[in-house]
Amino acid sequence: MSALQPVRPMIEGTQAIAADEASKQQAEVTATAIADAIRQQSALFRLATTAYLREQFPTADICGLLQSASSELTDIERIAGTSAIYYYSSLCMTTSYATHLGRLENDDPMLLVAETVRDESRDYTRPTALASFFEPPFQLSQSDMASFLTCFDQNPGIEDIRACTASNGAIYLYSTIFLTDDHAQGLVEFYAVEIWQNP
Description:
By secondary structure, the protein is an alpha+beta fold.
């Protein structure tokens, strides 16, 4: 027995190394599998929530695996919502579209409109066509938008959102934080009327 004792630590050490290598390989495979699941959701124009990913990979450390493999999975992006974390692939959708989807998940359409309008007023220095909210990914109803138009200035936190109308009747929204009334009105006329007269 005593002659075999020195061999046992070597066996245990070899087993530990093998287990560690197997664990690393499993982590790599799992991170890739998670990324593929996110890409599949993005291809369907959906965000992958951590809850959805945990259902698919119940034993995996989702956040940890994706973070450790982030240098290889360069298309996988993360959005922090008010109540959840969302993932998407930049190969299938833009950051702007993914942000809209994340806001839709919060189920607060008035805030969704306000934040989207602020984004456009700030990032693109332009008002937002009211009609754009009838289209995907928003798909809000005309009655909802008509109601919102009368409520923006009565709701703390979104009273900066205002509407203005072009000479052709098109309605646009803008944020007074980033655009003055006169500037917004001029831009509305340009985007709704003048740009079509001067192709």
